[in-house]
Amino acid sequence: WCDSSTTGNWGGDLPGSFGTAIGTGAQNTAVMKTYCPIGAGQQAADYTAGDKSDWFLPSKDELNAMWLYSQVGGFNTATYGFASDDYWSSSQFSASSAWNQSLANGAQFGAGGLKSFTSVRVRPIRSF
User: pLDDT, tens digit, for every residue of 7-60?
Assistant: First the structure.
């Protein structure tokens, strides 16, 4: 996993349903790329590491699972490379907001995650 030092906005109001469950991030990212060739979804999809090119922006629940895993050793004792900052998910909340999560304390934000925010990090993941 990478921790992109590049931050950016999420994108615009995109059509369709955006899943929040584990396993929906790749499809969400594909939709984001189709309608918004810039922004968090495209940044995640453009990432390449370890000769892999199948990276995507995690869904709300995928991002939360990553945070929970980082807490296995006790509250905030294992960061696994996460910055104590907010990260975009690929799950749309509304026309103007998308789900994001603080990897400092695990809080998730929907209505407060305005898509125009440019200070939210992108954390590409891949399924294997």
Answer: 678 877 787 768 999 999 999 999 998 888 788 999 999 998 888 999 999 999
What pTM value is reported for the model? 0.86
Run of H or E residues at 47: none
What tokens appear for 127 in the block? 């399924």
CA–CA separation, 113 and 60 (whole Å): 12
How many helices (H) and strands (E) in the chain? 3, 3
Backbone angles phi, psi at 102, to 5 degrees: -80, 125
DSSP-derived 3-state class of residue 87 = strand
Distance CA 64, CA 62 (A): 5
Over residues 77-99, mean pLDDT:
82
| Dihedral sign computed on CA atoms, order 102, 94, 22, 47 | negative
**Helix, strand, or coil (residue 98):** strand
